[in-house]
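Fold Annotation — chain and its backbone

Fields — amino acid sequence, structure tokens

___
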Amino acid sequence: MKTQFIIHKGELSFEDNCIEINDKKSKRTKSFTILSSIFPVLYGILIIIKYFKTNDPFDLWPGLILVTLGIPGLIIQTKMTFINKINFLEIDRVIIKSNFSNSLIADFMISNGKKRRVILDFADLGRFEKFSLDDFVKNLSDKNIKTEIK
């Protein structure tokens, strides 16, 4: 039995033993997000090195800020995954919430400590939440997957 849900920029399918996510995210996306987290850290390190040459405090503080904010961002990005098929046995729980841009997202927390984020509805258009959210949660609970709605 295969159940499909239309999500923002794709579809999400419940198959016999896995969830297939087709949201057009590729491995190139993961590389881009990690690189976009590495560059501020590297730039901050370069500014700090420049501080040791010039002793100008204006070179120290921006560098420290970039490094201290960039490292947690890099750690968060390395915990994300972009796999398209997730076995039901690998999913610990699913957290459904709205983010700061009023997009409805589902975070599939996988047993290896990684997270697969899926945008269910963009900019609070209400289509997924109004028409499909209850069926989506029911399908998850039928597969014995814990679901949290925040």
Summary: The two ends are 29 Å apart (CA to CA). The mean pLDDT is 86.
